[in-house]
Structure prediction request, 365 residues.
Amino acid sequence: MASAKLFDAAPPFPEDVSPAQIARISLSKLRAGDKTEARACFEASRTLGFFMLDLNNDDIGEKTIRGVESVYSIAQGVHDLPMAEKEEYCVEPPEKKFGYKAAGFMKTETGQPDRIEFFDIEQDDIFDNVPRRPYPQFLSECWDDLRSYLNIIQQILTILLSTLSGELGVPPSMFRDLQSTTERSGTRIRLIRNPPSLTDEDKRTALVPHTDFGTVTFLANVIGGLQILPPNEDAHNDSSWKYLRPQPGCLLVNFGDAMPEWTGGVLRSNMHRVSYAPGRQAEVPRYSVVVLVRPGRTVKMGRRVGGRIPTLEDDQREGSVREGEIEMAGLTADEWERKKSVNLIRGVVLPHSSGGRELKPMIEA
Ligand SMILES: O=C(O)CCC(=O)C(=O)O
Ligand SMILES: [Fe+2]
Prediction:
């Protein structure tokens, strides 16, 4: 998440709320090639699709912690701009998917207006993959900090994906190459603010239950509110949802829907939502700094072949091909994303967790 300094300034996560149990994986151990840590990272990515990445005692990690601090204050700054200025940059899906989304633009699962505002800044603008589109002057002045944060997250992504590739027995760059930083994509930095939740009416879902569209999401926040649906729990039962407790010096990592597609259902994309902050944390605004990594636009969404990834042929023989897989496989990431969002809007496919399949044991050479 972020440095201890930001945590010290915030009301504490209440002791009487029991958070979800989630693995804590050390970036420094992954970089050192620690086999036990790599296995633990893979298992967390497969079974829950969420884990805490401990950034301490590592140079890239420490740089990330400093980056979070700076982007966290950019999130505060952008949301402090006058509403009239933010509204000049509104998202207009499906065509304009970056910019400002006001609270209430979306609905929660009960049909009520959502309680989250965000500003999405596209990697293509940050890395100059396209002529820079308009952003508020305030953000243009923060461009160097945004670029260096995205750069460092991209380095962490490389380490993470090569670890997972190692466990899957495929070449280290196999998944990395599907999200090149120079190819146009939907990758973005999302700066989120939730208002305080002071009344009974405020104590409800702020962002609808969903899975992320892309490949990997990196989240930094200080105030609780994000909840996950543990595997095999009923999404309609409110008590199934568990808060994730933000931890200083850590990033929360989760996987989006592309990973189960590419791995034949092994890596997991898990349902989550944002609810009101617990205890006294509800008294203050909640900020989240999120990097949503998405595949390059032209990348095909079909299952990859190699290593321990279960093959389509075997699944066809066993009649266990996941619903919709064949139809989605021929699409590029861009077409896939559009199709998924149309399906979601029309209610054709409700969001649900996917992945979590066990791998056959590794045959040692
Ligand atoms: O604010 C958060 O903690 C999570 C936001 C989220 O899930 C998203 O933007 O996809
Ligand atoms: Fe999400």
